[in-house]
């Protein structure tokens, strides 16, 4: 089945390649709590790339169809179709090569947030390297490469946000806040964290620094938690993810006080491994500037010896989506990220998983107690 853009679709249903009714606001936008933003898009001359993208399922291969649609993605769309099948279609996101997939077996998966759909797709990409027997990608199910909005659409959404923020509609405070948040999101000023780049970074590191056996052990771990992650991810919208990101920022502030008051080397990282906070004791232990332990400049697996990194991923994967477990005590060998450095530090290592209200890991906090210098 190919994408069909119906003439009666509002601007948001059109961008998501979904049908909608004749009402304005349409029922789909009302259910998404953006009824106040629902409108028809002014008719524009169709670009050749959009025409080619619509015709691609009929007369082109999946690879060429994906290339033709490279200008048809809407970054403000909060619904997309994605799944967990495997294929060989490549797009470029954040300067790193990624693969996206459509459908596995006969079950079609739809994600309320393109960010969650992209994340489960890139996890499936990892598992594809295990040689799993999966169906090929269907081009009508892939996330779209990024599309630049028409200038007038960008201006309209930005103006709508400023007008909404300046003069929200009457009603309850919570409703007015929701209205402003939705307008800010539709204008492109609020975005969930992009974990896809984190998985791409992990894949690149494994390819360049790990043996085939170690890579496969990590991939096996992802196969264990993918079903649980997928079942939760399908129901989350971009607004949900933005609120989760707000909670993450609050945790960072809380750990400012915790890390400054403890003498044990410690740091915290996201579920894909990017370190977002560390104390001076941990920076001294691995011999890096403390500024490098912020904003994902380093990843936790980059500071571990290969076997220790694999051991961490295996233990993390075993409890990642088990709400009854949150802490693990193990050991590891830490190292400086400089590839020329050969010294390692043996540590007693514990980590605790902090989950959001949807039971998805958002923060992993690690404590390291050196026991032997080598």
Counting DSSP E segments of at least 2 residues, the number of strands comes to 9
Tell me the β content. 5-15%
Low-confidence stretches: 1-6, 46-108, 132-152
Give the quaternary arrangement of the chains: single chain
Specify the overall morphology: elongated
Mean pLDDT across all amino acids: 74
Structural class per helix/strand content?
alpha+beta
In total, the number of domains comes to 2
Helix content: 40-55%
Strand order of the largest sheet: 6-5-9-8-7
Q: What is the alpha-carbon Rg in Å?
A: 23 Å
Distance between the termini: 60 Å
Largest sheet: 5 strands, antiparallel
Task: Give me the strand/helix succession.
Answer: HHHHEEEEHHHHHHEEHHEEE
User: Number of helical runs?
Assistant: 12
Structure, explained:
With 374 residues, the chain is an alpha+beta fold. It folds into 2 domains: 11-147 and 191-210, no CATH class; 237-373, Beta-Lactamase (2-Layer Sandwich). Helices cover 41% and strands 14% of the residues. The protein contains 12 helices and 9 strands. The strands form 3 sheets. A 5-stranded antiparallel sheet has the order 6-5-9-8-7, with helices on both faces. Strands 1-4 form a two-stranded antiparallel ribbon. The chain has a two-stranded antiparallel sheet with strand order 2-3. The longest helix has 23 residues, at 238-260. The chain is elongated.
Please name the defining characteristics of this protein.
374 residues, alpha+beta, Beta-Lactamase, 2 domains, five-stranded antiparallel sheet, 12 helices, disordered N terminus
């Amino acid at each position: 089945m190919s994408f069909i853009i119906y003439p009666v679709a509002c601007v948001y249903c059109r961008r998501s390649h979904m049908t909608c009714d004749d009402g304005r606001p349409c029922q789909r936008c009302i259910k998404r709590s953006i009824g106040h933003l629902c409108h028809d898009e002014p008719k524009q001359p169709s670009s050749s790339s959009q025409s080619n993208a619509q015709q691609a399922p009929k007369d082109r291969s999946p690879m060429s169809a994906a290339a033709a649609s490279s200008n048809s993605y809407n970054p403000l769309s909060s619904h997309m179709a994605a799944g967990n099948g495997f294929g060989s279609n490549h797009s470029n996101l954040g300067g790193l090569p990624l693969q996206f997939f459509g459908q596995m077996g006969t079950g079609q998966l739809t994600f309320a947030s393109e960010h969650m759909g992209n994340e489960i797709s890139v996890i499936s990409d990892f598992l594809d390297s295990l040689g799993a027997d999966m169906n090929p990608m269907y081009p009508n199910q892939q996330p779209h490469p990024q599309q630049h909005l028409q200038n007038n659409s960008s201006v309209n959404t930005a103006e709508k946000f400023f007008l909404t923020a300046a003069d929200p509609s009457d009603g309850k405070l919570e409703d007015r806040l929701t209205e402003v948040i939705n307008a800010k999101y539709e204008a492109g000023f609020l975005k969930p964290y992009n974990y896809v780049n984190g998985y791409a970074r992990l894949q690149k590191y494994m390819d360049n620094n790990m043996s085939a056996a170690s890579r496969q052990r990590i991939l096996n771990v992802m196969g264990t938690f993918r079903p649980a992650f997928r079942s939760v991810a399908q129901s989350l919208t971009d607004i949900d993810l933005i609120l989760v990101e707000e909670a993450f920022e609050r945790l960072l502030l809380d750990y400012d006080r915790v890390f400054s008051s403890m003498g044990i080397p410690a740091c915290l990282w996201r579920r894909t491994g990017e370190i977002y906070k560390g104390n001076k004791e941990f920076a001294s232990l691995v011999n890096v500037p403390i500024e490098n332990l912020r904003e994902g400049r380093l990843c936790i697996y980059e500071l571990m010896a290969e076997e220790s990194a694999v051991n961490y991923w295996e233990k993390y994967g075993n409890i990642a989506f088990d709400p009854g477990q949150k802490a693990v005590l193990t050991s590891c060998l830490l190292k400086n990220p400089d590839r020329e450095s050969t010294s390692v530090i043996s540590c007693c290592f514990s980590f605790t998983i902090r989950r959001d209200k949807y039971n998805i890991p958002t923060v992993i906090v690690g404590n390291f107690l050196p026991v032997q210098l080598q």
